[in-house]
Amino acid sequence: MGKEFLEITEKEEVSRIIAELSAKLADKIAAATEKVRVDSGEALGRIASTDFFSPLDIPPFDRATMDGYAVLASDTFYAAEDNPASLTVKGYILAGEVPSQKIEKGICMGISTGAPIPKGADAVVKIENTDEEDTTAAVRTVKIYKPVAPGENIMLAGSDIKQGEQIVKSGAVLTPRETGVLAACGLNEVLVRKKPVVAVISTGNEIVTPGEELARGKIYDVNAQTLGDSVRDNGCTPLLLGITRDNIEEMAGKLKESRNEGADVIILSGGTSAGAGDVLPIAIEEQGEILVHGVDIKPGKPFILGLCREKAVLVFGLPGNPTSALITFNLFVAPLLRTISGEYPRNEAEMEKAERTKAKAAIRIFSEPGRNEYVLVNLVMEDEKHVVYPILTGSGAITTLSKADGYVFMTKGKELLEEGEEVEVALLTKPFSFVKKNSVYGKEKK
After folding, report:
1. Domains of the chain, with CATH numbers?
2. 45 phi/psi in degrees, rounded to 5
């Protein structure tokens, strides 16, 4: 047998165990994950599964970086305000056009930013340093008041990216910077890693799928939606396997189905307590072992971390209470999913910081003695300052989940936050935008 329920594990120890498992699972997934070809428009946030090399020079031709005139630099060497050089204008080149005129001594061509440099030209004079004379004359001339050096205001072919140069490394997360470079090189499809698959299963005799008839004594399943969306939000693909009843054979069947469907991680909600109807721990132990059953937090005490021996698939058992399920997901599951998906491979600390904010307690906030407690709060703006109010409907109420902007962690021994005391709020959504409002105990002032 593995961990017995009520052999409570410290929160920090649970996080340490999960971090170790995350690294091993990430290596396993990176080595085994198949390559998927996607359109570049769908590549943002995905992980490159191969090195990418540019098929061409960028830019592919010498191009002007300024509006002005393509010239022989030597024709301008002695130009000055009181002694301008005078050149004959032999036409104009717009961006996208191919120049047919060759530049020779004494002549030039007007040119737009981004247009190809005509043969013979070796510099571009900025338009503000010129003055073109009568444009209706048969022979047009331009006066140049400032000299240019060879190569001035020209971007040479391949000066940005050389043909064959590596532009994206395998394993890189494709941010807008990488997708922009791929587009510049004409690549409209990219090979990326297949996203890790996370099975999501709800348990309980009392829950039914939204859309079905709600019989007396039944409630609709909330967790499949919130956890499935949370899985997507952390870079993985949810595999929604529906509801399983509080039956060992049925639950064991769902665990096997998850593995057969290629799940890298399994999340179940409900059935984690020690009651007579809670059979999830038994089902997990029949197929593997329980590493953690019980953590020193409220809500979320009956959290389970298990491992199925076949294919070494991790199993998370979250409380059935939707608020408790979401808090334990954010605390323990989300960091693992971010690691195995590669969504935040190098800046986990920055990401975590971005999902937290400072505020002050608007009123006294209490926690249960002797427990690490996550107090759900409403975050509002009052007098140009961010303040938090505790949500008093309780973690069992569905509206608690919709009203909560985040939670405040109160450690054991910290049973009271005084009014005005600064707190750190972990946000339940990202990105988070504040709603400016005056509040009376968490309610908008009428």
Report:
1. 11-33+194-348 (3.40.980.10), 38-57+169-193 (3.90.105.10), 63-155 (2.170.190.11), 355-444 (2.40.340.10)
2. 85, -10
